[in-house]
Specification:
It is a single chain. By secondary structure, the chain is of the alpha/beta class. The chain is about 35% helix and about 25% strand. The chain is built from nine helices and twelve strands. The strands form three sheets. Strands 6-7-8-3-9-10 form a six-stranded mixed β-sheet, with helices on both faces. Strands 2-1-4-5 form a four-stranded antiparallel β-sheet, covered by helices on one side. A two-stranded antiparallel ribbon has the order 11-12. A hairpin with a 5-residue loop joins strand 11 and strand 12. The longest helix has 18 residues. It is globular.
Length: about 260
């Protein structure tokens, strides 16, 4: 059953149009949709729009209701957004930040249950030893993981992740995406993630969208989107797509597309 349908989105920043008739594949519980594209393709604008931070033309229908008909509280009770920028450096401790966020969200959890949830998130994201370290002392990658914990603590039905692995090494990129995949498959729900790593997108996403200059170039299954022709058109690289581990496509970049 379709849980999220996004059709014909048009978004302007002032008089400048940033998204042009963007339609996403319909999403069901268990789906992880990957947004791909070069810098300034429109991925972050699309994320902000879905998060309710940007006015739009078109249609966002979530669980049968148009986004505009839902109150701020109704939307954010089910949707969590992790922006591209990690939590700012401050004297706050990660554990304090998580407790404060949970209480602000008025989660229906007793203190013991909430403590166990926070401990589990810190453990899964490798943050246990940094739980009592001020944010200003953490690396950008660690603060990015704190940002993910803040998004996950509410157990959202729709998880919006804007470049959630950009400051992480390969090990933690896979840990993060393993956790996201596990959440949507075990507990229901969906995730949309803007990603740069094409091979990780192929491995973890059920559907892909390829954006360029605010327009959809390709959308659908991983094999339909990750083609040599699409990669040449959008990223200006010559590449071949081969079958890798467990049948996941792997992108081998051969070099830049030569002018002329």
């Amino acid at each position: 059953m379709t849980q999220l349908a996004v059709q014909n989105l048009n978004v302007f920043y002032g008089k400048v149009q940033r998204l042009f008739d963007v339609t996403l594949p319909s999403l069901q519980d268990g789906d992880v949709l990957g947004l791909l594209g070069p810098n300034a393709a429109g991925k972050s604008t699309l994320m902000r729009t879905l998060a309710g931070l940007q006015h739009y033309g078109g249609s966002i229908v979530y669980r049968g209701a148009e986004r505009r008909t839902l109150s701020h509280q109704q939307w954010h009770a089910q949707v969590a957004y992790m922006p591209q920028t990690p939590p700012q450096e401050s004297s706050l401790l990660p554990v304090e930040l998580l407790w404060s966020a949970a209480r602000a969200l008025d989660l229906a959890l007793a203190d013991r249950e909430l403590s166990a949830l926070i401990d589990d998130l810190l453990l899964r994201l490798g943050l246990q030893e940094f739980a009592l370290s001020p944010l200003y002392s953490l690396s950008g990658g660690k603060r990015q993981l704190v940002g993910l914990a803040l998004a996950l603590i509410r157990n959202p039905h729709l998880l919006l992740l804007d470049e959630p692995t950009s400051a992480l090494d390969l090990h933690w990129r896979m840990v993060v995406l393993d956790l996201v995949q596990e959440r949507v498959q075990r507990h229901g729900g969906m995730a949309i993630a803007a990603l740069h790593d094409l091979d990780l997108a192929a491995r973890y996403c059920t559907k892909l969208v390829l954006l360029d200059a605010g327009k959809i170039v390709a959308a659908g299954s991983v094999s339909d989107v990750l083609t040599a022709a699409n990669l040449a058109r959008v990223f200006r690289v010559e590449a071949q797509v081969i079958t890798g581990y467990r049948g996941h496509p792997l992108v081998q970049v051969l070099g830049p597309v030569r002018a002329g």
